[in-house]
Amino acid sequence: MAKKPTYEELEQRVKELEKEALKRRQAGKELRESEAQKKALLDASIDRIRFVDTDMKIIWANKTTTRELNVAPEDLIGQFCYKALIGKDTPCPECPTTKALKTGNIEQAILHHPYSKGIKGETYWDTYAVPIKNESGDILNFIQVSRNITERKQAEEQLSRHTEQINKHKLALQKLAKMDFADFDVALKSTTELASQSLEAERVCVWLFNEDQSEMVCQDLYQLSHDSHEKGLTLKSKDYPNYFRALKEKRTIAADDAQNHPLTNELTEGYLKPLGITSRLSAAILLQSDFVGGVSAEHTGPLREWSEEEQTFLISIADLVTLALEIARRQQTEIELKKHRGRLEELVEGRTAELKEEISERKKAEEELQRNVEDLERFSKLAVGREEQMIKLKKEINELLRGLGHPDKYKIVD
Question: 45-148 belongs to which homologous superfamily?
Answer without folding.
Answer: PAS domain (3.30.450.20)
